[in-house]
Amino acid sequence: MRIVVTLGGNALLHRGERPDADIQRTNIVRVATAIAALAHDHDLVLTYGNAPQLDLLAAQSTADAALTAPYPLDLLGAQTQGMIGTLLVCTLRDVLPGRRVVTLLTHTRVRADDPAFEDPTELVGPIYPEKPARFLAARYGWHMAEDRHGWRRLVPAPSPERILEIDTVRALVEAGTVVVCAGGGGVPVVADWATGALHGVEAVVDKDLAAARLAEDLKADFLLVLTDVPNVYAGYGTPDQRPVLDATPAELRDAHYPHESMGPKAEAAALFVENTGQLAAIGALDAAYEIVHGRSGTLVRPDLPVA
C-alpha cells in the first residue's frame, strides 16, 4: 500500500519547548520510531509542518542588523525543509537499516490570482508589542494582527495547485525509497503568465492541504494525518466532548472544526477521500501503525452513494 503521512508541526517541537537543536533531535526519534513500522510494510512518503521552525527563522532574520530587509518567506521555508529534512532522514536511516531514505526540496505552485493574496489569514513569526509591530508594518508593508499574546505578521495561505517535483517523488517511491518532501506545504511559487518563469511568494501553504494534493497526485491508497490527539472529537473542550471514530467528508465539513486546529486536517482528509475514493485517517503520532490497521484514530471513508 502507498501511504502519504503528514506530521503536525509540534512533532519536532512540543508546545512550550525551547526551539533548541538538541530538543528537536530528541523528539525526532519518537517520530522515526512511529513511522518505521509502517515503512517496513508499505511505500511511504512523509511530509510535515514547519511552523515553529519558520517562526524561529523569521524572528532571526527580522532582527539581523546585517540585512537590508528580512529574508522572504519562500526562502525561509526552503531553509526549514533542509533543517527538518536532514533530521528526519538521518534518524529514519538509523531505524530502517538498508532502506533508501531521501529528503527532497519541494516547491508548490499556487495561483497568482488566488483570493488568499487579498485576504491574509496565517500568523507567522515572532510576537511583538504594538509599537514595534506598527513600525514593521510601515517599513516593510506587512499586514500585522493582534492575537491573545501580542502582534504578529499576517500572510496569505493560497491553495496548493501542484507539487512541482511530483514526478521525481513518484519515481523515487516506485524504486522503493522512503521520501521526505513538501515540508511546510512546500516552497510557494507562482508562474509568470507570459514566460512561465517561477518565482517565490510571501505566503505559506497549509501542509495538510499540500499533503492531500501530494497523495492524490501520487495515487496513494491512504492519507494519514498525524497530530497530538488520538482522534477527532465532536464538541472538543466541552462537557459533551466525544470521539469521532469514523466519518464521511460531508460529516467532517458539517462539524465546522476550527481553522486554527482540526479544520485543515479535516478538510485535507475530506478532499483526498472525495477525489480518490480511497481512505484517510486522523490520529496520534504514536498510534500510526494502529491507525492504518483500523485500531485507532478517526477513519474517513467515502460518502455512500444515494440509492
Description:
The protein is globular, with a radius of gyration of 19 Å. By secondary structure, it is of the alpha/beta class. It is 37% helix and 23% strand.
Number of helices: 9
Mean pLDDT: 93
Radius of gyration (CA) equals: 19 Å
**Molecular shape:** globular
> What percent of residues adopt helix (DSSP H or I)?
25-40%
Total strands: 17
What fraction of the residues are assigned to beta strands by DSSP? 15-25%
Structural class: alpha/beta
The largest sheet, given as strand count, sense and whether it forms a barrel, is: 8 strands, mixed
Strand order of the largest sheet: 3-9-2-1-12-16-17-15
User: Runs with pLDDT <50, length 5+?
Assistant: none
The sequence of SSEs as H and E is EHEHHEEEHEEEHEEEHEEEEHHEHE
Terminal CA distance reads: 31 Å
Summarize the structure.
This protein is α/β, with parallel strands linked by helices and 307 residues long.
Features:
alpha/beta, eight-stranded mixed β-sheet
SSE layout:
Elements (H helix, E strand, L loop, with lengths): L1 E6 L13 H21 L1 E6 L2 H13 L9 H23 L5 E3 L3 E3 L12 E7 L1 H11 L2 E4 L4 E5 L6 E2 L2 H9 L3 E3 L6 E5 L6 E3 L6 H11 L4 E6 L4 E3 L7 E3 L1 E2 L1 H6 L8 H14 L2 E6 L3 H5 L5 E3 L7
Parallel strand pairs: 1-2, 1-12, 2-9, 3-9, 4-10, 12-16, 15-17
Antiparallel strand pairs: 4-8, 5-7, 6-7, 10-11, 13-14, 16-17
Helix pairs in contact: 1-3, 2-3, 6-8
